[in-house]
Write a structure and sequence with these properties.
The complex is a heterodimer of chains A (861) and B (186). Chain A is of the alpha+beta class. Among the domains of chain A are: 209 residues, Methylamine Dehydrogenase, Chain H (7 Propeller); 163 residues, 7 Propeller (Methylamine Dehydrogenase, Chain H); 98 residues, no CATH class; 64 residues, no CATH class; 42 residues, no CATH class. In chain A, helix 8 crosses helix 10 and helix 9 crosses helix 12. By secondary structure, chain B is mainly α. Chain B has one domain: Methane Monooxygenase Hydroxylase, Chain G, domain 1 (Up-down Bundle). Helix content of chain B is 56%, strand content 11%. Chain B has 7 helices and 5 strands; from the N terminus they run αββββαβααααα. In chain B, strands 4-1-5 form a 3-stranded antiparallel beta sheet. A two-stranded antiparallel sheet of chain B has the order 2-3. In chain B, helix 2 runs parallel beside helix 4 and helix 5 packs parallel to helix 6. Classes of the chains: A alpha+beta (861), B mainly alpha (186). The interface between A and B is medium-sized, with 18 and 18 residues.
């Protein structure tokens, strides 16, 4: 047991206090000047039992279920323990007693009072009293010899006396202490102690040391002192700890500075096995609190009140558009809860009559019955629960994990290898922590990557790429101001890399009132030399590697940037060799911008090499083109995701996204498909597209993401030699011409459009006008126009609402085509015939998976 | 400038709110705001905070200085010092007024804070009056006043300058009564 000191807490109002343990050592009993005796389960007990014994309590002693107190009406009373029923008065003094103690077997008590007397009273028969006279001042403290022969007493007159009990005589008296006139003026209350069992030594605290005297001879055996002890006041507080400690091992010489808490140490002194950690719920505060958070996560808060007047659960959503706040009565005593954007899940432990229950409020359900409840089999308690997307899970004490659908259908059931510690769910993933060797302390998972927080405040995240190891990403203790401050982590978000937590001043958990505010910490990997720019860049790079595989590509840009900055051009080229073709292009641009011409040259050579390799792999043009489309989307994504990156780099990405045609390596493709899945929007492509538009506009002003900007294309061409072979180069002019021509015709044909378009006409408008020539105008024109308002919603002012009136397209393909028309156009600006576009669109649409096609068809309906 | 205008200026001050809706970044002439994530604190100008609060779209987090202990210290310090002490915010009065009027349910011990800010304000105004009085009586040409907020200057500034103008006129008349009397005789 390490000699750690827990933070001090207040048990009574200001004034004199006394403390003792009960016989079993299971609780702490204190008394104080507020006249209460309090029974504490442990130091963290927030709801101690109070027994009022009088106006003021000076001292208390506890043995064999009897609680003896010295109170201000000058009596020594007995109460039963733990009930606290008064059980008579043992003795009276003319003033109050200062110290009462039991002897070893609990048959007698000794009391020393301010009227200079010491009395020994039989507990059963209070008529049998022995009085010891001899002190010339109030008695401070007493100590029974374990063999019941001697009684030691200390007094304000400065003397410490040892009394022979049977003879009622004073065996010896030492003038050891400082004299004073009253107990309140005494510098030390001078608690004495005999060596337990044998009683061979008597220990007396004197100023800054402890004097030990031998029994019978009463000679000073040795002194204990320590330079740590600087104040006399301190000494008295530490005395009992010191004595017990010393006398237990009967070792002389070494002195341990132990706090009061450890004074009654267990006799076993070796390392103790850590008790098994109880199961807990992520984002909850401890169960024993009357007002506690059952859950605080990214969706909302569940609070539980459990006091005399109210036993209720409050559910509150951060986003009120998910659901309104609700108030439930907690008649079934739910102890654990979880919250998702679909449902509230509650579970209770079993009682004698009632089985353990799982209760689900499925508020997002579209039918009228919004809740369901499941009873667990007998003797099976729910220990941890969690919610995912469309499922709920409960781990029970029978080492079973039960899965339910969100509607309440029982699904898979399987057994766990050990007692559960915690569970966390996200989407389709479920993470279970159970006991095996290592003990986790706290656990949270609010993203797709598992992560946990230990009791030291260190946040770790699973590094899937590096053999599923845990990487520390943030140490919340570093952010704390005070020593006893903590951060209570409520969520982790990868997207803008954030750790959401609640700062708690002087505690581990936040109170429910006043409502705490969330703080945001950024992630920081513990890398060396973080003060230097190199260290920072390295940290940034690896952090992004961990945080998302799909950030990989931008991270490399980050690395590139790093090496440029460091003027290590060779290293940069090395890095570039590792990069994908696309990243190399970016690198070339960056290098040329930062006037590193040699580097730019080297890199472009490398780019040519890579591109020629690629050219061989380009078997089918159409396929690649489709990839290209997805890349566009994902590029928009990664932009949105990496706010930490340099804005300049982002700009480049934008430009490049637009100028890029099909010169990318195939290796990237699987990764990109993954992104689509991550986003959970594989079939609704317009969502990410709009997002990318939003980012664009923040950087470059407002630009249509679908627009092919010819100006940005040209410089890119000059850098990338492979593109010179591309037909697009030569086609640029002619396509522009046709655009102009089309616009003219467009204006003639449909005058409605004209007045709404401001002068800086976007290419979008001209692109739209491509279709005006087609023969089958009515239906198709409408389609094109419907696309425009869609874009307009993402970047409003630029695009003109040129729709005449909207008519729903009829088939899935038409819808798809309408979404992707601009892509086809941007890829093939030479398509001026609608037939060509449709043809190209057909090819692409066929390349989509059957599911996606189905989704589109459904949409059309 | 009247008080409403000063308040209008104060509404540009940033305060932290916890929105209960989600919204992407919004782009305004004065700068970008957001993104708004439910449950996550975000800094917005006071005018937006008050507006959102009125529509029950957010909770307002009181500024760090809007705390009973800190304000008590400030008030005591203000009372002890002869001169004006630095205030926690250049718009402390306007911020307190607006926040307490519209978001008092989000501010712990709102009443105590209101009283403390009023005390602070009264102390400062008293100092201002006293110094203006001695300025006039001693017929000083200039005085230095540090740590005054716009609102405080605004309460007495216009009046004081006008009053000084008048006094100047009266005094110049006193010095040359004869000349003016003569001129009137004509």
């Amino acid at each position: 047991m390490p000699a750690t000191q827990k933070p001090v807490r207040y048990g009574h109002t200001e004034g004199h206090t006394d403390v003792c343990f009960d016989d079993s050592g299971s609780c702490i009993v204190t008394c104080g000047s507020d006249g209460d005796v309090r029974i504490w389960e442990d130091l963290d007990d927030d709801d101690p039992k109070s027994i009022n014994v009088g106006e003021k309590a000076y001292s208390c002693a506890l043995k064999n279920g009897k609680l003896v107190t010295a109170v201000s009406n000058n009596t020594v009373q007995v109460h039963t323990f733990p009930e606290g029923v008064p059980d008579g008065i043992l003795t009276r003094f003319t003033t109050n007693a200062n110290h009462v103690i039991f002897n070893g077997d609990g048959t007698k008590i000794a009391a020393g009072s301010s009227d200079f007397l010491v009395k020994i009273v039989d507990v059963v028969d209070c008529s049998q009293q022995k009085t010891f006279r001899g002190h010339d001042a109030p008695v401070l403290s007493l100590s029974f010899d374990p063999k019941d022969i001697f009684l030691a007493s200390a007094s304000c007159d400065g003397s410490v006396r040892v009394w022979h009990i049977p003879d009622q005589t004073c065996a010896i008296s030492w003038p050891l202490l400082q004299k004073c006139n009253d107990v309140v003026n005494a510098k030390s209350i001078c608690r004495l102690a005999w060596q337990p069992k044998s009683g061979k030594l008597l220990a007396i605290p004197v100023e800054k040391s402890v004097k030990l005297y031998r029994r019978e001879t009463w000679s000073n055996q040795f002194d204990l002192s320590d330079s740590f002890i600087s104040q006399e006041k301190n000494v008295t507080m530490l005395k009992t700890g010191l004595l017990k400690e010393e006398e237990e091992d009967d070792q002389a010489g070494s002195s341990h500075n132990l706090p009061l808490v450890t004074s009654q140490r267990p006799f076993y002194d070796g390392p103790m096995p850590t008790p098994r950690q109880k199961p807990f719920q992520s984002g909850s505060t401890p169960l024993h609190l009357t007002h506690r958070f059952m859950v605080w996560n990214s969706i909302g808060i569940i609070r539980c009140y459990n006091d005399e007047q109210d036993n209720a659960i409050d559910v509150e959503f951060h986003d009120t558009s998910i659901h309104h706040a609700t108030h439930l009565s907690n008649s079934l005593n739910y102890t654990v809860a979880d919250l998702s954007h679909e449902a509230i899940l509650l579970a209770s432990e079993s009682t004698d009559e009632l089985a353990s229950k799982l209760h689900c409020l499925h508020f997002s359900s579209w039918d009228s019955s919004k809740e369901w409840m499941v009873d667990m089999p007998q003797h099976e308690d729910i220990e941890a629960i969690c919610l995912g997307q469309g499922w709920a899970a409960a781990a029970t004490s029978a080492l079973l994990l039960r899965l339910f659908s969100i509607g309440g259908v029982q699904k898979e059931i399987f057994s766990l290898p050990g007692p559960v510690v915690s569970m966390a769910g996200h989407g389709e993933q479920l993470l279970i922590v159970f006991h095996r060797g290592r003990i986790f302390s706290q656990f949270y998972n609010l993203t797709s990557t598992p992560c946990y927080v230990d009791s030291e405040g260190c946040v770790r995240m699973l590094n899937r790429a590096f053999g599923n190891t845990w990487t520390p990403v943030c140490n919340t203790r570093e952010h704390c101001k005070g020593k006893s401050d903590h951060y209570w982590v409520v969520g982790i978000h990868e997207h803008p890399q954030q750790l959401r937590c609640i700062p708690c001043k002087g505690s581990r958990f936040p109170p429910t009132l006043p409502r705490p505010a969330v703080a945001i910490l950024s992630f920081k990997l513990p890398y060396c030399q973080i003060a230097t720019e190199k260290g920072q860049m390295e940290e940034q790079f690896w952090r992004s590697v961990i945080f998302h595989n799909h950030l990989d590509y931008l991270a490399k840009n980050g690395y590139e940037y790093l090496s440029c900055k460091l003027e290590r051009e060779f290293r940069c080229v090395e890095l570039a060799e590792l990069m994908t073709q696309h990243a190399v292009n970016l690198a070339v641009k960056y290098a040329s911008r930062s006037r590193k011409l040699i580097l730019a040259q080297k890199l472009s050579e490398l780019a040519v090499e890579k591109a020629s390799e690629l050219a061989a792999t380009q078997a089918e043009e159409e396929e690649v083109e489709e990839e290209d489309f997805r890349k566009k989307l994902s590029a928009g994504y990664s932009n949105a995701a990496t706010e930490w990156d340099q804005p300049r780099l982002r700009n480049q990405t934008e430009e490049d996204t637009e100028s890029r045609k099909e010169a990318d390596d195939t290796q990237k493709t699987p990764e990109l498909h993954e992104h689509g899945q991550n986003s959970g929007s594989t079939d609704t492509f317009d969502v990410p597209a709009i997002k990318s538009g939003a980012v664009t506009s923040s950087n470059q002003g407002r630009i249509n993401p679908f627009k092919v900007s010819a100006s940005s294309k040209e410089p890119a061409m000059s850098v990338n030699s492979t593109r010179s072979t591309n037909i697009l180069d030569t086609m640029n002019k002619s396509s522009k011409k046709s655009t102009a021509f089309n616009r003219a015709t467009n204006n003639e044909k449909s005058p409605v459009i004209k007045p709404l378009i401001p002068k800086p006409k976007s290419k979008q408008a001209s692109a739209a006008s491509f279709f005006q020539k087609r023969p089958c105008q009515v239906e198709k024109t409408e389609e094109v126009k419907e696309e425009n308002p869609k874009n307009a919603s993402s970047e409003a002012p630029v695009l003109c609402p040129q729709n005449v009136e909207n008519q729903r397209p009829k088939t899935g393909f038409q819808m798809w085509l309408e979404e992707n028309r601009s892509n086809i156009l941007s890829d093939n600006p030479d398509f001026s015939e609608e037939a060509d576009i449709i043809k190209e669109g057909m090819i692409r649409f066929r390349a989509l998976s059957t599911e996606e096609r189905k989704a589109w068809t459904n949409k059309a309906k | 400038m009247d008080a409403a205008e000063v308040e209008f200026l104060a509404e540009k001050e940033l305060v932290t709110i916890i929105p209960n809706f989600s919204l992407d970044k919004i782009y305004l002439i004065g700068g970008d705001l957001g993104p708004f994530n439910p449950g996550l604190p975000v800094d917005v100008p006071l005018w937006l905070a008050v507006n959102l609060k009125q529509r029950q779209k957010c909770r307002v987090l009181p500024p760090a200085w809007m705390d009973v202990e800190k304000l008590e210290q400030l008030r005591d310090h203000e009372r002890k010092e002869e001169t004006f002490t630095p205030v926690p915010s250049p718009y402390y009065m306007e911020l307190t007024k607006l926040l307490l009027n519209h978001a008092s349910d989000n501010i712990p011990k709102a009443d105590a804070i209101r009283t403390l800010i009023k005390d602070l304000w009264d102390t400062r105004m008293a100092k201002l009056r006293v110094s203006a009085d001695s300025f006039v009586q001693q017929q000083e040409a200039h005085a230095k006043l540090d740590n005054l907020t716009l609102m405080e200057i605004n309460t007495s500034g216009a009046f004081l300058t006008q009053a000084l103008n008048h006094m100047y006129k009266l005094r110049t008349n006193l010095l040359q009564p004869a000349e003016s009397a003569q001129s009137q005789d004509f």
